[in-house]
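for the writeup, i need someone to sanity check this before i put it in the appendix. the sequnce is what the collaborator sent (i think, or maybe the updated version? ugh). structure was predicted straight from it, no edits. if anything looks off just tell me and ill rerun, i have time this weekend
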Amino acid sequence: MEDVEVVVAHRQRATLRVGDVFLKVDGDPAHAAIEVRAMAMVPVPTPAVLWHEPPVLAIAAVPGKALGVLGEPSAASPAAWAATGAAIRRLHDAPLPPWPGEKLEDVAAELDSECAWLLANGVLPPEVITRNREIAEAALRPWRPAFIHGDFQITHVFVDGDEVTGVIDWSEAAPGDPMSDLATLTLGHEERLDDLLAGYGPGADRDVIRAWWSLRSLVASRWLIEHGFDPDAPGCEFDVLRSRMRDS
């Protein structure tokens, strides 16, 4: 009998692994529906969909191992990071999905709301929040929409040697700012940005990527706290915000 491993679990969703099968249980059936549609469209390796019976989506495991983990140095080679950049570029050059993405004004409103919550609850020094809100402003500009993953965390990319074997968790896929994908992947791994962009090619805006590091860390922190995660763990979101103070 196979053991059941709880990969992640919180109030919104849970992912279980049984052998080489992942079972994703989501309270919002729209997330899995988007994930299935996106994986059928994108020009990058994705897990095979075994079956989908809402609220459960069953997908096959992908070979290889994660590109890295937030809070720890990535052991992946520069070539693996460059291959990941090339895969992201193929995604961003693909035809847009037919469903809508997040609007600029919604991103700005969410940023203001989350900064207000962080200030009101005193989870970080006010100067850290205020300075990072200023840095994040550079991301709040009109962008040319691309097909983005929407949650391109380093743990969502699998590699075998120098090859990308799969990209998982597509429930946030939509038209959006391509720089946000590049920023999410390198969050806490800023030293690998050059390797990533070597594969991605021209068109990346480093200032906007840095702005998204601040923006994503500010916006994600309350959700992480409320769902049992620790943004203050070494190398995670709070450290990213503090590091922006040292860089400014």
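The domain at 62-247 is CATH 3.90.1200.10 (Aminoglycoside 3'-phosphotransferase; Chain: A, domain 2). The chain has eight helices and ten strands.
thx in advance!!
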